[in-house]
Amino acid sequence: CLTEVYLCDVLPRGTDNTLVLDGMLRARGLGPEAVRRSLSPLLRELELHCARCVATGCCRRELQAGTAAEHSHDFCPNVGTIDDMLEDAAATRRS
């Protein structure tokens, strides 16, 4: 059944990646709490991508090493969305 395949595809891979996502948001200069308050629908998309991510080990290592921000474009499925959020925040500050 197509529905079963879809549900399997979106279910987390057995680990809670909330802390990884929060760490990546912080590393890139965004406050996870502020994102949750003001961009909750977008946060759900980020959480879904993070839950399905196959590079969480790499992400955790980069976060621990303090190099996640500079290397996130190499592995993070959320990098484009986070870049957009950073652009929007910068544009708002300039206004």
Please characterize this protein's 3D structure:
There is one protein chain. The protein has 95 residues and is an all-alpha fold. It is built from 7 helices and no strands. It has helices spanning 2-10, 18-27, 32-38, 40-51, 56-65, 68-71, 79-94. Helix 2 (18-27) crosses helix 5 (56-65). The longest helix is centred in the last third of the chain and has 16 residues, at 79-94. The N and C termini lie far apart (50 Å). Residues 1-8 have low confidence and may be disordered.
Order of helices and strands: HHHHHHH
Query: How much helical structure, as a percent, in the residues?
Result: over 70%
| SSE class | mainly alpha
Note the gap between the termini.
50 Å
Mean pLDDT: 86
Based on CA inertia axes, which overall geometry fits? Answer: globular
Low-confidence blocks of residues: 1-8
| Radius of gyration, whole Å | 14 Å
Tell me the β content: under 5%
DSSP summary: helix tally: 7
Largest sheet: none
**Number of separate strands:** 0
Task: Please tag this protein with its features.
mainly alpha, 0% strand, disordered N terminus, 95 residues
